[in-house]
Design brief:
The chain is mainly α and 122 residues long. The chain has 2 domains: 62 residues, Orthogonal Bundle (Arc Repressor Mutant, subunit A), CATH 1.10.10; 34 residues. Helices cover 66% and strands 11% of the residues. The chain contains 6 helices and 3 strands; from the N terminus they run H-E-H-H-E-E-H-H-H. The protein has a 3-stranded antiparallel sheet. Helix 1 crosses helix 3 and helix 2 crosses helix 3. The chain starts with a helix and ends with a helix.
Amino acid sequence: MQISEAESIVMAVLWRDSPRSSEDVVAELAREQDWQASTIKTLLGRLVKKGAVRATKDGRRFSYAPVLTREAWVHGQSSHLLDRVFDGRLAPLIAHFTERHALSRKDLDDVKRLLEELDDGQ
């Protein structure tokens, strides 16, 4: 499922706490983004249409909750990035960040630990 960057910002609000009314989502995003209420409601509508969010009638208004989990979205985004930029290979991605000194000592230690755990598990 493809969701835009703006839609992912709305999803982040719902992932943090849901179900939420559109008024709650608008109020939270009004503090974080320079968006009109109509823009946020349009984004919610798009997410419902895509099946990423479920709208449930709650009295006279709707409450919104994510159907798409954050974990599934992250998996899709990271797979897409690897495929599109690094031919589906993880090593060139890590090399890219290490060459640019974008990995901290803690990041490097974490990567080493993960690789050791993977190696021990095989």
